[in-house]
Amino acid sequence: MRDLTDLTRPTTPSRAIQERMAAETAERSAAAGPATALQDGAGAPAPLRSRLAEAIERLAPRIVELSHDIHDHPETGYQEHHAVAAVAGLLREHGIEPAVGVHGMDTALRAGIGSGPAGTIAILCEYDALPDIGHGCGHNVMCANSTGAFLALAALEAERPGTLPGRVILQTTPAEENSTAKEILAVRGMLEGIDAAIQTHSYAHDLTHQTWLGVRRLSAAFHGVPAHASSQPFMGRNALDAATLALTGLGLLRQQILPMDRLHAVVADGGRVPNIVPERAALSIMVRSKYPETLKDLVTRVEELLHGAALMTGTGVEITTDPHSNEMPVRDNGPLLAAWVRSQRERGREPLPAGVLPETIAAGTDFGNISQRVPGIHPLIKVTDGPDVALHTREMARAAGSATGDRAAVDGAYGLAAVALDWLHDAGLRRAVRADFEASGGVVDVEGFWQEGRPDQ
User: Fold this and answer.
1) I need a surface site. Which of 58, 196, 322, 389 has the fewest CB within 10 A?
2) Which CATH code is given to the segment(s) 214-327?
3) pLDDT digit string (tens) for 405-427?
């Protein structure tokens, strides 16, 4: 019951749903059994994985130091100058000269090691933070995972040249939170010559795959006619009314969308003063869906709704989108995930299989744009003490800089390096990875996706 004597404070959300979801997750986990792992004899030889574990242990203090450095200097998208300098400096300490500012992006870095016929696998790296919250998505841990994995593989190659029968690329990808930088980088050639791509994500569970929704960002600017709000309101056309109707329409539309779809919006501009009929109002909108084709359909419905709001109010509306495709749903590769599961079991972790965690805990990432172009994985690694710490919260930011985050930084570095080694050393695994990718749809034309019609047209 709310205290009606103090209505200045918001109500506290009930924790009953978190408790219920935790219980259901435990039940599903017990019923599902363990996640599929790469079998002994597949992937890289066991002695080589042992050498990798030793390399990771030698690097562990620097991996943790990098995670803390990034955590203590949070920078938002495209402003990650401290972070890119920290990664570049660490690479140079180990004799690797990176290229900084690649593909026309100041805070994007690229480095490569190894050569050979096996092909090229990319380890992607994020390090941007959230405004006000800091590293509430744990990108500092993810940066340490990727950089540490790359340095460990470089150490193996330096000890015994030829250890890597192919090439490994470390590619940092800025601005995951406030942009779709991976799409921009992909269009500019980041994936040319890349055969597979891998990256972790911080989380409150060890998890092979969670639902990553596709995202389309829209801006809707309503244009009306200003008028004196008291003496001649009838001469005005209220742009804020149009925005209000659009928000109401979005709320009603939620009743008729798929359970995993999401719609959210904020008023970016609502007029200046109350005694003038607002001439302009603007909404910033995010549309999310689980599949590319359902995302495209839902975006069309939202655009129709925005036009309807303009018609009802006699206003005009301009709908704009980012020139680059926003986040596509992530398509995880089964054989690569099996390699990840084995690596994490070697670190004493037990990643949950897909379908155990409720799908309602879903977000988006521009790694989806990569996974639609090349085989890839985006497994989640536990950085928290408890299972109910959510992404994009101050609690997650604290966890990402804690001892549990430090352990995840080291374990994830081993995991990514082990997956890369498995892929490079096992031609059968590479064939299985490619076959799984083709069976799940093959290469998708992400860049041209929004130029095509809806699936029902």
Assistant:
1) 58
2) 3.30.70.360
3) 999 999 999 999 999 999 999 99
In the 8-state DSSP scheme, what is residue 329? P
* CA–CA gap between residue 177 and residue 186 (Å, rounded): 17
- How far is C-alpha 145 from the chain's CA centre? 15
Q: Is the CATH number of domain 33-212+330-440 3.40.710.10? A: no
Residue 381, beta-bridge partner list: 202
From the list 136, 89, 93, the residue with the least C-alpha distance to 109 is 89
What CA–CA distance (Å, rounded) separates 432 from 445?
22
According to DSSP, residue 393 is labeled: S
Cα separation of the two ends of the chain = 51
| Rounded distance between C-alpha atoms, residue 174 and residue 377, angstroms | 18
Contacts of 286 (CB under 8 A, 6+ apart): 215, 216, 217, 218, 262, 263, 264, 265
376-377/196-198 β-pairing: parallel
Confidence of residue 129 (pLDDT cuts 50, 70, 90): very high
Q: What is the pLDDT of residue 183?
A: 96
Q: pLDDT (tens digit, 9 = 90+) per residue, 294-304?
A: 999 999 999 99
Q: Per-domain residue ranges for the chain?
A: 33-212+330-440, 214-327
pLDDT of 353-369, one tens digit each? Answer: 988 888 877 889 999 99
Distance (Å, whole) CA 127 – CA 135: 9
Nearest to 135 by CA among 85, 80, 185, 210: 80
Does the fold of domain 214-327 match that of domain 33-212+330-440?
no
Contacts of 54 (CB under 8 A, 6+ apart): none
φ, ψ of residue 262 in degrees (nearest 5): -140, 140
Strand 109-113's sheet: what is its strand order? 99-100, 109-113, 167-172, 120-125, 196-198, 376-377
Place of tokens 């829209």: 218
The DSSP annotation for 141-191 comes to HHHHHHHHHHHHHHHHHHHSTTS-SSEEEEEE---TTTS-HHHHHHHTTTT
